[in-house]
Amino acid sequence: MEAYKRWVRRNKEYVHSLESLANGLTWLLPERFSESEIIPEAVTSILGIVTAVNEHIIETTPTNPSQMHTRPPETSSFPYSLFLTLMKDVETLVEVMAQHFYGDDNKWNFIAATEATKVLARLALLRNSGYKMLLHGGETVNDEKGPNNANQPQTRGHPFQQGRNGHFTYEGRALAAMSRFGENARMISDPTWFHRAEHHQRAITQLPETDIKRPTLLSFLSEKGLPGGLLIMGEVMFIARPLVYVLLIRKYGSRSWLPWFVSLTIDVIGMSSSTMLLTSQNARKLHLSDPEKDELRRRKLLLALYLMRDPCFGKYTRRRLESTEKTLGHVPVVGFLAAKLIELLVGAQTRYTYMSGS
Fold this sequence. Notes:
Blueprint: H1 2-10, H2 12-25, H3 38-59, H4 80-128, E1 157-158, E2 161-162, H5 170-189, H6 196-206, H7 217-224, H8 226-252, H9 257-275, H10 280-283, H11 290-302, H12 312-328, H13 334-349, H14 352-355
Antiparallel strand pairs: 1-2
Helix pairs in contact: 2-3, 3-4, 4-8, 5-13, 7-8, 8-9, 12-13
C-alpha cells in the first residue's frame, strides 16, 4: 500500500487522467449491461471508491520530500471524510441490491442502516472537528481558519449528486456527464482549486494530531453562548434528518405525506437556526467562514429536492413536467431537449439515493 501511495503521489496528473478515461468509457459499454442495474452500479461504486481513495492519498501527501520514501507515522484520527465519501459511493448499490433481492418494502431496512451509519460518522466528525459546520455532509474537511482564506475546500460532484458518478443507464450517464461538466468548469474558472491539496497539507502540518485540543460540548457552548447552541442545533438536525425521513417512510410508506412534511420541517428549523448565525449580533461571537456560508447556500438549494420526492412528485411535479413537455413538444430542438430532460428527471426520481440530499 505504501508503494501504491508513493506512485499515486508522484503521478497525480496521470492518475486523474486515468480516472476521467475510466468514467468516460462507461458511455461505450453495450446497453445490454443496463438490463441489470446491479452490475452498472457495482462498477460505478468501484470507480468512485478508487477515485476517493486516490484523492485522499494525494491530499495527505507529506510536505517534507524526505517523507515520500518512508512510512508515515500513524495517526489516531479516523478519516471520517473519506469514510463518508465511500459511503456515498456505495449507497446506491446498496439500494439497488436490496430492492432486487428483498423487494421494494424491505429495501428501506438497508437504506435506514446506511443512513444510521452516516449519522454516527457525522456526529463523530462534528465532535472531532471542534463543532465546526460540516461541509458537503462531512465529505470535505472544514479546516478554514477565517473568512479571508481564499483556498476553499471543494468536493467532487454537485449539490444534487454528491460523490456519485451515475451509472450506465441513459439517466445515470446524463447525470454523470452534467456532474463532470460542472466540475471541469469549476476547475478552469477557479485556479484555487489546484491548491486544495497544498492547503489541506498545510493544515495538517501546522496542527499535528497530538497538538490539537478539541473543545468539549460544554466548553464550546459556554464560550460561544447562544450562537454556539444555534450551530449545534442546526448541525444535529441536518445530520439526523435523513435517518428520520427513512424511518418514517419505512413505517408509513413513500406515498404518505407525513414523512415528507416531517423531513421538511426538520430542514426548515435547522436551516433557520443556522441562518441566524449570519446576524450581526451572533456573528460577533461565532463568525462563519466563506466556505461555511457557501454550505448554507448549498443546503438552501437542496430544499428544491422536495419537489422531486413522493408524494409531491407524483401528485404535482410530474403533472407539471408532463404539461411542459406537451407545450414544448411542437418546438423543434427545444421540444426534443425538454423531453430528454424530463425523462432524466423522472428516471432519477425513482431512486431514493439520487434525491436524498444526504
